[in-house]
Batch of 4 targets.
Target 1
Amino acid sequence: MSVLIDVRQVSKQYSGGSKQQREALKDISFELKAGQVLGLLGHNGAGKSTLIKSLLGAHHYQGEISVLGLEPVTQRAKVMQHLAYISDVNVLPEWMTVQQLLRYTSGVHPSFDVSKANSVLEKTDIRLNSKIKSLSKGMKVQLHLAIVISTDTKVLILDEPTLGLDLVYRDTFYRHLLEWFHDGERALIIASHEVSEIEHLLTDVLILKHGQVVLQSDMDSLAQDYVVVETSDDHHAGIEALKPLSRERGLGSTRWLLHAAQIDQLDGINKIYNVKLADLFLALQKEAV
């Protein structure tokens, strides 16, 4: 698989009060290849938005970033021909009709396929003569996606794309997204707080906390590297000595999130469960970096 994004030791500092520098990113490195769906996770202030802006060439950074062989700041126009970004904030021109937006995009984007966009929109409730400002939030997100998947986009970055949408719009959004994704050599980055919603889509995950990586893995390895075990209440002392990532008390038993290699050191395990990404995410956010 070809490497579409290559990030090497990227850091970013912002000026704070009293001439202090706040480090928003510290030594972030990863590759994104065609066919991969990377979940970019972290609470507010973790560095997700700063990393996305770096990939989009929206600000300078330290380190190296290559997007399809291009540097995003100095070659931003070329980068944006093959990289697209959708967030929960509407960026479409409210005063245009849908038809006018399609014509405008066709004029400014050389690879835009207006017939494909119309085909996608036919599967929605969006009408070509509708003003964009009259569309619901869900319709605006659908319209934005229709435009993106009708261009020669190789990498799509989604930043909380379904925030505030109901289940019907979320389902439609991800269905159209996956149809586009599997129809070519493409890659996705999804930044979201809805970990459970996107977990089944991901091939890889990158979790940030205070600008640093606290977990970087493919999803298959997560199932091998971490487990949840259930013990009775009289086995707390032995398991606490292993410094579990988290624990959840129930009626007469406790569930512990552990590294899989630690299981051999335990007795009295009642049950073993596969770890969920949401549980791991919460546990790592609570840990000290």
Note: The radius of gyration is 22 Å.
Target 2
Amino acid sequence: MDREIDHAEALLAGLLERRSVSPKRLCAPGPGLDKLDLILQAALRAPDHGALQPWRVIEFRADERDALANCLEQEKLRRDPLASDKDLQRAREHALRPPVLLGFVVMPRERCKVPLREQWLAAGAALGNLLNAAHLLGFGAIMLSGERCFDTVLLRQLRVQPHESLAGFISIGSIAQAAPPARPVLPAQVWSCWIPELPPSSAAPAQENHDADGGHPGT
């Protein structure tokens, strides 16, 4: 029993070390198709009210990255017509740098009994599982969003439907340079214990006697 507990704690220790790793700190190789399949299986095991699977991923493979880079460069110019060459190159690098690049799309089911906020929570849980699985397989990963995720032209180019939302782009790869230590956060910062409200007093406040016409006695 103790051995099983030690094994479980070792697995949890690995999860507690997870950090988002910038694409600048990633290098090839990224996960192959077999590892990507495992990562997505983990995402599919996330809590999901109604088993709606209100999310999907888009893989941007290596031979399509130049086309994606062109799309991101044009999006930057639409947002900032005076963007510098350095800014445009940085926009292109969002598409070209990561060893593996995925788009994470939330696709809520609108005519459904499950509230939309719960569907978004389910999508977030799947994203968390995806990033955790990448970490436990030895890769670094991060999701980056930004204003480009709201550009209607880019969304159409990526075939994101009007009822869907592009949450962000997930970069996954081997860790070439470790991320800086995470800022420590204590569980007490997000932990509270509920205390029920006290029931109202059963003793009614004393009331003065009133005569029939509402006046005080003796008036």
Note: Residues 21-177 form a domain with the NADH Oxidase fold (CATH 3.40.109.10).
Target 3
Amino acid sequence: MKTRVADIWCQEGWRWPRNWIDRFPVLANLSPLSLVATKRDNLVWKNRSGTQVDFSTSAVWDDIRNGQDLVPWYDAIWFPQAIPRHAFIMWLIVNKKLKTQDVMSRWNSSGNANYNLLCCSLCTLGPDSHEHLFFECSFGLQIWNGVKGLAGMEEVGNKWDSIYEYLVRFGRSKSARIVIGKLVVGATAYFVWQERNVRLFSTNKRSASRLVEIILATVRMKLHTMRFKRTCQVERVLQEWSLPRGLLVDDDDCG
């Protein structure tokens, strides 16, 4: 319906269609209006504080949802350059929501299922867990050691707590090195978890060196879609990743 307020109001009063009055008698009792002919009709939204603002889906969503303070790891996972499927896995890891074997062993099971007999499909040395997979597992550690150098995270250990602390500490940084580091951590976690599942449900296997190649190629492909501030440090980073200088721009931030 494209009816405007001005179409149903004139100097003499409201001009409601008869079927509207029949269905909604309250319309006949509405107060008169004072229309400003020079202003266009527009949508407004009265927010929780009673202030009228321009209508937008974001304004409505902020009002109807139960808002909470930002978690400390927000910028480390949900940053603009993040690869969505990698960010989703990182969100699950941070919240310890992956269905790892240590989690499943605490479930009430029926039948003959015995989760205590499960072992990590990557190293076969006991059940997997969030801490084990990222990256205490000998297989996962080979992958992490193969990628963290290019991520600028040589000094970061293989314990998830150390990696998490690093991400939170520098999560808000927009420097090329930090953004790349977050991309590498996300891609590594994603492909380690993917390989874990592939080995659980099939006979297919990829070597640690092959996964390192896939992770670096995935991040490099993402970097080709970005632009970087022209600095000496960024030029070194691009050289390390074998990226073209055409990605350099004079903007304030990489994006």
Note: The mean pLDDT is 88.
Target 4
Amino acid sequence: MGREVKYYIVAADALPEIFVKVAEAKRMIQTGEVNTVGAATRMAGISRSAFYKYKDSVQPFNDLKSEHIITFYGMLKDAPGVLSRVLSGFAGADANILTINQSIPTNGCAAVTVSAETSDMEMTLEAFLEQISGVEGVVRFEVLAG
């Protein structure tokens, strides 16, 4: 009988340093900054054995956006142009919108869900969420599923 795998999202500053360094080594390899595991581990300041021990268990949160469809949830003020500005943010970030669903506004706000294919986005998911949350008229904006 196989062991059930559970996943947690943990702030980087709460993790042992080795996990953060393994994630950094993986990033260097994936981006082509280095060509070998040996070079990545040297630059990250870890051993190759530590890298191989943890490489399949450590995944930065922003990598969850790669080649995935993510559904975002937002609460928007019922004012002209708010939804348009949010959608412009998606276009500016190279997110391909697949679906948009907006409820009828009540109490001056409307819930909206946007599903988007995000593999072409160059910014991190965290930066994207921060950008859209800062759009005038956005009350709340978060990842619903992805």
Note: The chain has a mean pLDDT of 88.
